[in-house]
Amino acid sequence: MTSTHDASIQARLPGRCNMPGFAVVDSASKLIGDFFEWFGNLGIFFWRVLRAAVTPPYEWRELIRQFDEVGSKSFPLVALAGAAIGVVVSLEARYTLSRFGAKSLFPSSLVYSVVEVMGPIITGLVVSGRVGAGIGAELASMKVTEQIDALEASAINPYRLLAATRILACIVMLPLLTITADMCALLTGWFAQALVEPLSFHQFIARGFNGATFNAFVPPTFKTAVYGLIIGLIACFQGMRTTGGAEGVGRAATNSVVLGSLFLILADVVLVKFILVVFP
Description:
Radius of gyration: 25 Å
Distance between the termini: 82 Å
Number of helices: 11
Number of strands: 0
Mean pLDDT: 84
């Protein structure tokens, strides 16, 4: 009887853990702990993939297949996105330069805007949406159906076969897809301008690249290899640690796109500063 009475009194009195302030602190500490745990697991995963990638035997057949999956099948979408960006930038640049009486600077402004800024980031985001979601969902499905466990039981390293090949394909193909997007953007940008004012493509290219140097165009293009590393690494990591059946597969695909795009944008901020310092 006494124990029942004490239990009823404790239930009516707010305990230390039930106070709102302590609940907020516990939630914040758990969030911070999960944050650092996620980064720690990502670092361990990256080290395992790197060690597997440099250790023979190499999965050349799977690597070539991933080149096709990441590069060839992303080509139409990247080209279409680049073409749309070219038209938009052309219309905006022409309107802005006309207000300040600087229409002669249109070719160079379009070229620099596309090649240095818009082309790389748009290509990265498009590939993150398509390839990141595909890799995340594919590997998550293999994880929940125990196909990855079957590979390990067959003495096949899943980090070499599944992760390393996809990450390397993203690293190699992102710069090539960026060049494709830049070319389509410049072509449609010139076409949009030529519809308003006659301007030959030769004149457009000559004016646009007048005074251009190696440092102006090559580093922004090849920084997308870092984007490829981020997209492939996060998508493979999210896919190969999936739990929870079909719901986990959907969650892995979503997280692959969201986190990949977020870290891609953050990496772009760092890389822009790095390029300005190293290639002034």
